[in-house]
Every structure is written in structure tokens, then in C-alpha cells.
Design goal:
With 111 residues, this protein is of the alpha/beta class. It has four helices and five strands, in the order βαβαβαββα. Helix 2 packs parallel to helix 3.
Length: 111
Amino acid sequence: TRDMVVALDWPYSAKHRETVTKWVDCFAPNVIQIKSRGSAVIDTALVASGEIDAYIQLGIKPWDTAAGSLFIPKCGGRITTPEGSEWNIFNDRILATNGVLHDRILDMIRE
């Protein structure tokens, strides 16, 4: 079903862009919208608030996700790497979700 809103951004790295393009192909049949605001700070805050269901990105810096990474778990969300590994503030790969859809999104991008 097409029932989720996912945010992602266009990375600087050409290699990362290839991965993001693959993600868009995976998400397209399953989402209402794919948003690109160009701000991890805003998108992680919107995941925490419930306005969007997920934010996924490669090549980010700690200051991009510091605030959101504090709020998302407190609001019932979940953060890992896009591969499903444990995430920390110094990891430049992030999948932040509302928690409910996290495993479903991981399954989509692994296919």
C-alpha cells in the first residue's frame, strides 16, 4: 500500500547518488510522497513529530542529526544505518523512522 511519507536528500557524492536513486526506485511504489528539503535537521525533527514517517540519508555530518537523534527515540522512533546496523552520531549514514515502519523500510531498500 502507498501509505508513508519518506524524506531524503541528494548527496554530494556521485557514489551516494547512485544509492539514493536505487532507494527512490524501491520507495516509489510504496509511498504517498518522497520529500527533499535539503535539511537533515528539519527532516529528523519532522520524523520525531510524526509529520513524516522516515528520513534516510548518506554523507551527513554529526551537526545535521544531533538534535533529531535525541528526540526521535523519545517519541517512539528508531534510528539505525540504512543497512540496519547500530547508528551513532558520528555515522554518516542514517535511517530514522517513526519506529512502526522501520523494518518495512529496511526490507524495501535491501531488495
